[in-house]
């Protein structure tokens, strides 16, 4: 009898997980968050490409840049950023790879960290962009409007994790000031904005669950619920939390059995391209604006926006669509 009950619950759990792997719809309106449980991620060692990374690339490939070549550097720079010949690169963030699995070995233990935009509560990238190309959505995610991004990379400069990645030879700067401004278009995870707006979970979240079922690494849901679950688990399981205080709070929480101080120290030692600093000040929350002098005057900005709007009207839907 006892065995039967156990079997019954096993089947029930399996069926629940199966139901969850299908394209789930939700009607919740409000801010979302993602919980990323590092105790569960094995980096998809048995796969040629991690499932979540593959799903992200598949979901977003229609928005990947198609640069016009030859690419010209713009004044006064002598170089430009071109990832178009490295589209297959999956071990770092690029304009063609908005999520990657960072590998860190600590005390003989391998840790796999899915890295993507943190979707900050007070996003410096949104406030720092002089062209207003970034916005924070009602769902709490930050999105780059590729059609008005000049690729000046201010968003990356002010991002504590340097997440947005630039591709040259594409974007509105080519039409307006090809030799004097911008330098491409910036790309990053937008939390699958289109999907969550139509009530579907992000592609990476679904893909991981298809593989790991109830042991999935990602959990996506209403922000309050995700925060509550993370806090409960650190209390009950003695885990460590990252993302709740950094940069004034974010919509991406990491849980780890290893203290984040150790992870931060290891990433520093490795000189990793993407770090996980524990102390992250939010310059805008503290009302210090380092770009005060650099932001274009309202007049210039207005004129540029007007020109951009006119060009965009003609070129609508042509931009960066394969
Ligand atoms: S998060 Fe999930 S899908 Fe992604 S690498 Fe880890 S186990 Fe694989
Ligand atoms: S992580 Fe960086 S790119 Fe993402 S919202 Fe925060 S500041 Fe912006
Ligand atoms: S939320 Fe969407 S865009 Fe962001 S990493 Fe996941 S699949 Fe990619």
Automatic annotation (TrEMBL):
What CDD domains has UniProt attached to this entry?
A: DMSOR_beta_like
Asked if Iron is a keyword of the record, the answer is yes
Q: Which GO terms describe its molecular function?
A: 4 iron, 4 sulfur cluster binding; metal ion binding
What range(s) does the 4Fe-4S ferredoxin-type domain occupy?
108-139, 140-169
The answer to whether the entry has keyword 4Fe-4S is yes
Protein name, as recorded? Oxidoreductase
What's a Pfam family this protein contains? Fer4_11
PROSITE patterns the UniProt entry points to: 4FE4S_FER_2
Look up the record and report any one GO term of the cellular component aspect.
cell envelope
The compartments listed are: Cell envelope
Q: Which UniProt keywords are present, listed alphabetically?
A: 4Fe-4S, Iron, Iron-sulfur, Metal-binding, Repeat
């Amino acid at each position: 009898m006892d065995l039967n009950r156990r079997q019954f619950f096993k089947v029930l759990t399996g069926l629940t997980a199966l139901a969850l792997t299908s394209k789930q719809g939700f009607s919740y309106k409000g801010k979302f968050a993602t919980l990323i449980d590092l105790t569960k991620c094995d980096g998809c060692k048995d796969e040629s490409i991690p499932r979540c990374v593959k799903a992200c690339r598949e979901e977003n490939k229609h928005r990947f840049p198609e640069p016009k070549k030859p690419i010209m550097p713009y004044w006064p720079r002598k170089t430009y950023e071109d990832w178009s010949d490295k589209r297959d690169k999956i071990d770092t963030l690029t304009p063609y790879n908005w999520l990657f699995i960072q590998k860190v070995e600590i005390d003989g233990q391998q840790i796999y960290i899915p890295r993507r935009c943190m979707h900050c509560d007070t996003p410096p990238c949104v406030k720092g962009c002089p062209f207003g190309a970034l916005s924070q959505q009602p769902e709490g995610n930050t999105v780059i409007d590729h059609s008005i991004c000049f690729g000046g990379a201010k968003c990356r400069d002010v991002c504590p994790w340097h997440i947005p990645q630039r591709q040259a030879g594409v974007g509105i700067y080519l039409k307006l000031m090809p030799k004097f401004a911008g330098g491409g278009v910036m790309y990053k995870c937008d939390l699958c904005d289109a999907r969550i707006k139509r009530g579907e979970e992000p592609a990476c979240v679904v893909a991981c669950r298809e593989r790991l079922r109830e042991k999935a690494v990602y959990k996506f849901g209403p922000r309050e619920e995700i925060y509550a679950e993370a806090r409960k688990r650190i209390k009950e399981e003695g885990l460590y939390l990252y993302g709740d205080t950094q940069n004034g709070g974010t919509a991406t929480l990491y849980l780890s059995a290893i203290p984040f101080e150790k992870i931060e120290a290891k990433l520093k030692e490795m000189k990793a391209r993407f770090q996980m600093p524990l102390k992250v000040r939010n310059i805008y929350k503290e009302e210090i604006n380092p770009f005060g002098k650099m932001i274009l005057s309202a007049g210039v900005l207005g004129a540029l926006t007007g020109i951009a709007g006119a060009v965009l009207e003609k070129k609508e839907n042509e931009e960066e669509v394969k």
